[in-house]
Amino acid sequence: MRRIILALAAVVLPVMALTALTPLGAGTAQAGAALQATPFQTPTPGPDGRIIYVVEEGDSPWSIAANSGIPLEQLYALNGMVPGDFINPGDRLVLGIGGPVIPTSPPGAAAPPTAIPATPTPIFGTGVICVLLFADTNGNARLDVGETPLAGGQVSIITLTGALAEEYTTEELYNEDAEPDSFCFPDMETGDYNVSVGVPPESNPTTSMNFPVHLDPGDTKYVEFGAQPSGGGGQSGDSTTSTLLGIIGVVMLLAGGGLGYFAARSRRSDRMSLR
After folding, report:
1. I need a surface site. Which of 17, 68, 134, 199 has the fewest CB within 10 A?
2. Of 229, 248, 267, the domain-final residue
């Protein structure tokens, strides 16, 4: 009997000790960790220090700012945007200015000899940005057949630092096929720009009036903006009607005053005759 008890103790005691050393719920925590979604991966800074994010399908300025941990206002300011602007898959947005990531050695590895890092060779070159402001008569935010260039708009191209690179007042330009033609800015240095357009008076924009553009050497980027008449022509008729009504009101006031004057004279004459 004593031998049986000793044998059972030899089996049970190690199991109890192992159970005591295992934290309660450790298996659940590990399973939960495995089910967690992959966190948002902030892009690493490029050689120039800028952190660039490429817009994907389903992204919005709000979700990009929330996932990257920066205020929405800062995201707008870095990219020359305003609330209500649209972004499209493939657009490149600046999330901030950082520095290139320096990889670290694994624990226990011998430190490599210190070396002077090579300076990245800057990429020089130029590209072209072409801009078209068209009369979006049907208001569908697309350039359709029969819609014409819209003159009188003010185009501004701003650099990432906020400096004005180019500006232009739109004209009615057509190509050799009598189709609306863009105005192009040649020899633009490579980099990131924000293209914006102010619509002419008595017009309303039908597209976003700000668009970020990334220019690589040899690129030609086309940007189109739409606007349609605001219907201000009816204001002239309203003004004429208001003026006419005002004149009629003055005439009625004068007529009423004259009638009152004659009534007062008549009453006075009646009192004098009674005396």
Report:
1. 17
2. 229
Task: Give the domain extent around 142.
Answer: 126-229
| Between 120 and 144, the higher pLDDT residue | 144
Task: Examine residue 223 and state whether it is found in any structural domain, yes or no.
Answer: yes
**What three-state secondary structure class fits 150?**
coil
Strand (E) or helix (H) holding 6: helix 2-21
Same domain for 144 and 192, yes or no, is: yes
The Cα–Cα gap between 208 and 196 comes to: 9
Residue 158 lies in a domain: yes
Burial 42-63 (b: 16+ CB within 10 A, else e): ebebeeeebbbbebeeebebee
- Per-residue pLDDT averaged across 113-118, rounded? 64
